[in-house]
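Worked Example 4.2. Consider the chain below.
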Amino acid sequence: MNFVELIRSQQGFLLTGHERPDGDCLGAEVALFHLLKALGKDVVIVNPDPITKTHDFLTRHTPFQTVNKQQPLPPFGVAVLLDCCQLSRLGELGPRIRNSGAVIAVIDHHVGSDRADGQVCYVDSTAAATGALVRRLYREFGVPLQLPAAEGVFLSLVSDTGWFRYSNTDVEVLSLAAELIGLGVNSSVIYDHIYRRMHPESVEILVAALGRHKKCLGGKLAMVCLDRNLADHASRIDFDTDAVIDPLRSLEGVEVVAILKERFDGAIRLSLRAKGDVDVQSIAAAFGGGGHRKAAGASIAMSLSDAALAVEEQARKAIEAVFAKERV
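Applying the procedure from the previous section yields the following structure tokens:
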């Protein structure tokens, strides 16, 4: 059964995504929610973590729920994972979905997403964003894109293309962006919601985080380690610590940026970005994570100091793999 047949044959859907859902995950959920509603389906969005202030403008037109240990999940026959493909990335929600007996479906654009937990997959690793794949589903069903869904798809695009700055900004992305603007999406309003409502203490965290960066491997790796106190402070004010990445990636000579953040449970959350040809997905994969060649992440069950050493070693291998080819 393919994905379109699955949607046609089922009535109840639960949409979800990875912990700390980002703009691509949330935007794709919004777009799919409104597609399924237009098709007369019963659908809910239930995420492992609540939507943050950065993206709460989506709640104007789309309801979001957060998993609650004390409450049963709404009834559903299909669980759709968006922007991820592994139940392990759903926190405590993952086992509940696995034990529900529901069909597990995946919509994703990460490499290898069709070889994980999805029984039915709608995957294209060449797509710039998961939301772009949901837009394709609208065409397959012949359903017109309404403004709430268009806003979701636009958020997906700008989140995963860095507002059209990254190398995955292709013809499909720009054509789709033009279509969405034509449907009434206000790009400046979305930008202001995301980037111009930051807590006054955000500056302190940004300065503190950048002050902790160190350059390794001859300046090709820039690494920032955020301990539990700083990470908790960032979480309390909804500060996205990935904001540290771009200032470091802009430095001459830096090929990879790694942000290591100590979580409340002691695990380390790793975020990786590449500027050139280094495959950071290979670094994340060494720790059971994944992503794209230029953007990837993982959770590491080590102390912060041990994780930093392990990441540096894996980054060394990935960087040497590129520069060894250049010397040949």
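The chain has a mean pLDDT of 93. The chain is about 40% helix and 20% strand. Compare this with Example 4.1 before moving on.
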